[in-house]
Amino acid sequence: xxxxxxxxQFLSIQEGENLTVYxxxxxxxxxxxxxxxxxxxxxxxxxxxVTGGEVKKLKRLTFQFGxxxxxxxxxxxxxxxxxxxxxxxAGDETGTASKLTFGTGTRLQVTL
Amino acid sequence: xxxxSQTPKYLVTQMGNDKSIKCEQNLGHDTMYWYKxxxxxxxxxxxxxxxxxxxxxxxxxxxxxxxxxxxxHLNLHINSLELGDSAVYFCASSHRGPRYNEQFFGPGTRLxxx
Lengths: 112, 114
Known about the structure:
The complex is a heterodimer.
Chain A: E1 5-7, E2 10-14, E3 19-24, E4 29-37, E5 44-49, E6 55-58, E7 61-65, E8 71-76, E9 85-93, E10 100-102, E11 106-111
Parallel strand pairs in A: 2-11
Antiparallel strand pairs in A: 1-3, 3-8, 4-5, 4-9, 6-7, 7-8, 9-10, 9-11
Chain B: E1 4-7, E2 10-13, E3 19-25, E4 31-37, E5 43-50, E6 53-57, E7 64-70, E8 73-78, E9 87-94, E10 104-105, E11 109-113
Parallel strand pairs in B: 2-11
Antiparallel strand pairs in B: 1-3, 3-8, 4-5, 4-9, 5-6, 7-8, 9-10, 9-11
């Protein structure tokens, strides 16, 4: 079973700060997704990256897929309280049938 | 217009009981999933159905039995509930594509076994 390790596990920052969340694996993924989950709700897809080295931006969020497609990062600029939530990366295993392996999660809290 | 819906939202029951969770999606997707999220928020796939056919069956006790009456519905029946079954169960759906799939999740069912 492929394992996706996220770091840090917990992050508490003040509004306006920048942060980076990492998602690492020893395995190669055909694509990697980032989800955000708020309390009492299901995860919501933020972005999918499919090409090694790919960078995608979603407003203040920047996602990068590692060149070898084994890792990814999420950078948030000028964090806001609305960014609070559980961030999950998920890798799509190469050659398997629609199976996502989720990361261990990063819980982010942004305070005023 | 709920895309993926689950019922019930909360389920509290005694050990040994049998219970079911229902899931419906109106996105026209051909693939549906059940995930279990434990107390540490780790999300792990349990089952996946494509066009009513079981395609993923992870290491799950056979007390758990999924059923897909049609492409829009995937139900989960659990027999002889145990304390360790307490968790949040999420249903999800997607299109099964050639390169990647983007999954849409329901709101979850919080199961508490006493």
